[in-house]
Amino acid sequence: MDWLSQQLGSDYAILQVDQAPAHTSSKICWPENIIPLFQPASAPEINPIERLWQLLKKPLKNQLFSSLQALRERIQEIFDQLTFEQVISI
Fold this sequence. Notes:
90 residues, mainly alpha, 2 domains, two-stranded parallel ribbon, 49% helix, elongated
């Protein structure tokens, strides 16, 4: 973070971060010119990967897999079935 602060010089930056413990620790000393903007605890509309997880989890719900490879293959099938419109909406 010090590197970013130095690069900014007299400018300011707003850094959007999630609420992971590493980002919310009281041990973090935020430089004056970096302002943390904490996302809500669950904010899928802000974080595109959350919308992708929603698409993935639905067809995987209540399924058991005989191996990690079987899970990987099922996930690949789900990815292959995503439409262009679904990908764009994410």
